[in-house]
């Protein structure tokens, strides 16, 4: 099962009071359902490849309204194909849609019957939207990504605003499949999982995120160390070239003591960095020379070599 499937499986088992169950079903209907109106009411239908989402919707309809729910399953024909679940329920006299606040008596849209001022109902609205048309990338993948697909701009703005109220900065983009409300930051996806009550999925996500971030950090440090080592080796090789040139074309007799000490350190430890040379200076030349002091010495040697070459 995918990580999204695990999250939906956990969300579909959360026990709630009736107002929050209504908020969840309301959101699922607005996000996912196809509604066709007739003379005797409406037909509400859902389609999904997620069994957890299908079970939750069936549970919500039976729990809240004790109606007959028709569930059809289209089994997969190929290995890479998912089973398809189709849910249908007859809403006579629009009793379900009116009670939830999806539509008014004449079938026009209206405000929900529950209060979005309550945190529990806000969480349930987001939970229902995610169960209906949400997904989260595998945390092990390169980029973090969570999205909920809304059928229109109004529903997308509702989801975006609810996320904004809990400190999650979600973006929107229009796609052929609908308006996609998405989150790219790992810490904000974790905040979403915590808010909607997916505690086990949150722990799993954070565990993977910590391991992944630690691995990336270690790799960056190792790459940085390798780059620094390569740079130090190249610098040391250049310094040895300058020392060899001075020995052949100028001699060491006219050099100042500080340059002689730098040359002694470099020739004794040809592969060491300036920091390492500084640490060994006291025991090698009987005086401490700082890293910056050595750097100045080798720059002076380089200038002297350039001067000799010009002359």
SSE topology sketch:
Elements: H1 3-11, H2 18-32, E1 34-38, E2 41-48, H3 51-65, E3 69-74, E4 84-92, H4 95-100, H5 119-133, E5 134-136, E6 146-150, H6 153-165, E7 171-175, E8 178-183, H7 186-196, H8 199-249, H9 257-268, H10 274-285, H11 291-310
Antiparallel strand pairs: 1-2, 2-4, 3-4, 5-6, 6-8, 7-8
Q: Concise description?
A:
With 311 residues, the protein is α+β, with helices and mostly antiparallel strands. It is built from 11 helices and 8 strands. The chain has helices at 3-11, 18-32, 51-65, 95-100, 119-133, 153-165, 186-196, 199-249, 257-268, 274-285, 291-310, and strands spanning 34-38, 41-48, 69-74, 84-92, 134-136, 146-150, 171-175, 178-183.
Name of the level-1 CATH class of the largest domain:
Alpha Beta
- Number of self-contained structural domains: 2
Could you say which structural class the secondary elements and strand pairing correspond to?
Answer: alpha+beta
Which CATH architecture of the largest domain would you pick?
Answer: Roll
Backbone CA Rg? 34 Å
Total number of helices? 11
**Low-pLDDT regions:** none
Helix content range? 55-70%
Mean pLDDT: 86
């Amino acid at each position: 099962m995918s990580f999204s499937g695990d999250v939906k499986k956990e969300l579909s088992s959360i026990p709630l009071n009736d107002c929050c169950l209504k908020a969840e079903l309301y959101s699922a209907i607005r996000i996912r359902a196809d509604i066709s109106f007739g003379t005797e009411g409406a037909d509400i239908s859902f389609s999904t490849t997620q069994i957890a989402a299908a079970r939750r919707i069936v549970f919500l309809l039976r729990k809240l309204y004790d109606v007959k729910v028709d569930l059809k399953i289209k089994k997969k024909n190929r290995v890479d194909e998912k089973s398809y679940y189709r849910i249908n329920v007859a809403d006579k006299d629009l009793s379900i849609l009116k009670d939830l606040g999806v539509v008014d008596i004449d079938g026009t849209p209206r405000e929900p019957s529950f209060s979005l001022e309550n945190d529990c109902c806000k969480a349930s609205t987001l939970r229902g939207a995610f169960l209906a048309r949400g997904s989260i990338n595998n945390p092990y993948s390169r980029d973090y990504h969570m999205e909920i697909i809304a059928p229109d701009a109004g529903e997308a703005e509702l989801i975006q605003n609810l996320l904004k109220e809990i400190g999650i900065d979600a973006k929107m983009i229009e796609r052929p499949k609908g308006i996609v409300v998405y989150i790219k930051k790992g810490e904000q996806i974790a905040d979403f999982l915590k808010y909607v009550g997916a505690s086990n999925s949150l722990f799993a996500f954070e565990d993977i995120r910590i391991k992944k971030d630690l691995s990336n950090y270690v790799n960056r440090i190792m790459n940085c160390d390798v780059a620094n080592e390569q740079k130090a080796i190249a610098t040391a090789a250049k310094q040895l070239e300058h020392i060899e040139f001075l020995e052949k074309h100028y001699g060491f007799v006219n050099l100042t003591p500080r340059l002689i000490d730098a040359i002694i350190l470099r020739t004794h430890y040809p592969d060491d960095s300036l920091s390492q040379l500084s640490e060994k200076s006291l025991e090698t030349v009987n005086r401490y020379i700082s890293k910056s002091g050595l750097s100045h010495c080798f720059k002076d040697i380089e200038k002297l070599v350039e001067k000799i070459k010009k002359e």
